[in-house]
Design a protein that fits this description.
The termini are far apart. The chain has one domain (4-147). 73% of the residues lie in helices and 0% in strands. It is built from six helices and no strands. The mean pLDDT is 90.
């Protein structure tokens, strides 16, 4: 099993690959993370992905970003009716929002629910979290480049 540092490096590299459009490399790294990690490590992987997502959200929203330490909260806005009825999408969205709000207890509860729901929901949820965060990271990168 890989070390925590190796897992963090792989998450970073997978996100970098996704942002530049190297889907094969990103997918290969995500698969390797899943294969080389136990359940506890995967919680850490999800937290690392969510941390990158939280950073991207703060960059995208700038001064308008909510500050949980001041009572502000990130919220899920369901853009398509029924989107959160899908347990894979619900996990990804709810985990990211709970993590971004500093609510590690709720993030852990969402992760435990996904894990208990079986491999299809759990693996799909982790992949969806990665996809969502890669999209946020790409948007934040583009916004940052446009601001320069």
């Amino acid at each position: 099993m890989m070390t925590s540092e190796e897992a963090a490096y792989m998450v970073k590299e997978a996100l970098k690959a996704a942002v530049v459009g190297d889907a094969d490399r990103a997918a290969g790294l995500v698969v390797q993370l899943g294969v080389d990690s136990d359940a506890n490590r995967m919680f850490g992987v999800c937290c690392a992905i969510a941390e990158a997502g939280h950073r991207a959200l703060r960059l995208c929203f700038g001064e308008a970003a909510p500050d949980p330490s001041q009572g502000g909260m990130w919220l899920i806005e369901q853009l398509e009716p029924g989107a959160l009825d899908n347990p894979v999408q619900a996990f990804a969205s709810r985990f990211l929002v709970a993590y971004s709000n500093g609510d590690r207890e709720t993030a852990l509860a969402h992760w435990e629910t996904a894990l208990a729901s079986g491999p299809e929901v759990f693996v799909g949820g982790v992949c969806q979290l990665f996809i969502d965060v890669a999209g946020l990271t790409r948007a934040a990168t583009q916004q940052s480049e446009a601001d320069e």
